[in-house]
């Protein structure tokens, strides 16, 4: 079902997806899902070649206008430059931002260095702040805005999945950031919501093992990991007109592993 009112206006708005280039990630699944449901897509990723490759795949498979751009979400100049590049491209106006770029960290608290803590905060939390700040003016100008950020079940119960305290802190910060944005920009009709996935079948858990992945799946009441496309569907729906009265929320998608 189209997520915009696009029966006659397909590809009338652009969805920006950060961290959208990894072949087995939530970001690439979300970028594809946006395109399938009538959005143009801008993929921002640290890996420029992969971002362009994903964009070309999306265009070929769906007919949607799509571009891939290099962007380091921890660097204000890089984020600002990417936002300007999207604005000055041939894509339609920006209507949604899916802030998905992130890194995991399974380091135990007493082994956590300040450099590692800062790295995790920078990519997950600061990157979300910078991309929201860069694209909000375009949404205000365009008269339509949906921000969907990426938290984690780890933030909700303080770890216990794969990543530990630094990741929990960063993802908890995203919840507060999202609620603040929702409150500040509601009078523009712009919504901001956060998604808190549980265990998803992606490659973010660098260093995990088959036994560990099996244990993670077994820990979920539904008995399996989510597919990236299941999570992607929620990003796209929260970007729709149908979701226009939902803002400042945390949407859990975790197979029952955390029940609030």
Automatic annotation (TrEMBL):
<dbReference type="Pfam" id="PF13561">
    <property type="entry name" value="adh_short_C2"/>
</dbReference>
<dbReference type="InterPro" id="IPR002347">
    <property type="entry name" value="SDR_fam"/>
</dbReference>
<dbReference type="InterPro" id="IPR036291">
    <property type="entry name" value="NAD(P)-bd_dom_sf"/>
</dbReference>
<dbReference type="GO" id="GO:0016616">
    <property type="term" value="F:oxidoreductase activity, acting on the CH-OH group of donors, NAD or NADP as acceptor"/>
</dbReference>
<keyword id="KW-0560">Oxidoreductase</keyword>
<comment type="similarity">
    <text>Belongs to the short-chain dehydrogenases/reductases (SDR) family.</text>
</comment>
<protein>
    <submittedName>
        <fullName>Short-chain dehydrogenase/reductase SDR</fullName>
    </submittedName>
</protein>
